[in-house]
Specification:
By secondary structure, the protein is of the alpha+beta class. Helices cover 68% and strands 11% of the residues. The radius of gyration is 31 Å and the shape is elongated.
Length: 372
Amino acid sequence: MSEISNVKSHWHGLLISVLRPSPDFAARHYDEHRFNCLVMTLVTALAGTSLWTWDFTHDPAGAAHTVWLRLATLPVALPYMAALWLRLDRRLALVAALFMFLGWEACFFVIMGRIEGGFVYGLAGFMYFVFMPLLATRCFTFAGNAALVVAIVAFPEVVAMTGAVPLFAADKYAALLVPAGNMSIIAAFIMAWLYGANDAFRQKLELEAATDALTGLSNRRRFRQKLEEVARRQGVVGLLTLDLDHFKQVNDTIGHFGGDELLIQVARRLQACVRAEDEVARLGGDEFAVILGGEINEREARLVAERMLEALERPFSISGQNLTISASIGVSIRPTHDGTVTQIYEIADAAMYAVKAKGRRGYGFEAVKTAV
């Protein structure tokens, strides 16, 4: 039953990511498809511009007055392409895309009215507009693309209702454009679903690659990345490194499986001691580290270190046995201009070994301060 529940939860999560995506998901979707959409829009705009040759083949006299409308295809697309190139907010880009499509359709309306029999072969043009979001605006979420398709299908009908284009056979166009629009929306949903599934799988792999398999904490790789992120964002790094005292003797006493269970319980207690903005990592063996986020100062670091020492000194229950341990903690708080993140880690590590050298069971700052 749990497997069925997990499958249902997985598919439900995918559906939510398609219909109501998170800002992070939408931003990734936009960034990953932005360049391809830019290229496809440029190709489409150039193709639309060159179609003046088709107009001349069909009706040379009427086409003489449509060249400038065909040439307008490219400048009408420029705001959208600029939004993609400059990586503007995706909502601004969506508005620019709407302006582009409606501008293209407006130009097409005028062209069809000036070409003999234009409203006959114009059906093919409108059908092309309906499916364009699958190529040129795939960088948007399903909701954005569905809205664009609805606007593209509705625009000709709205124009026809105004009576501005008396030759436009609105009923015939609706008979074809509405089903085509439905197909385009279904295709957009399927593409968004596939992207969501791929994104979820990729996120899972990235999480597994950054997680310690035993404790579920961040691993050394993620620890390094987070440390560099904090250094770039805040300019100050607060770091605590922690080793369990005499862990080899613990392993010899309760066995490696018991040692693993102890590490799992230690990880849980450490997570309960830190603040929400801090991050706990297991670097390997019985070595842990805490990256301080938010407010970074000596007082906060002391409070975190003291809570961890107090938590670890409470007895652990391992395979029916009560076990008491202690830990040694080194602390380093330094501006990033005072050394690389590697050097700052080495300073905290040296402080921890200084605590060990003075009898273990305590914490110390930088290696020059006395362990408490």
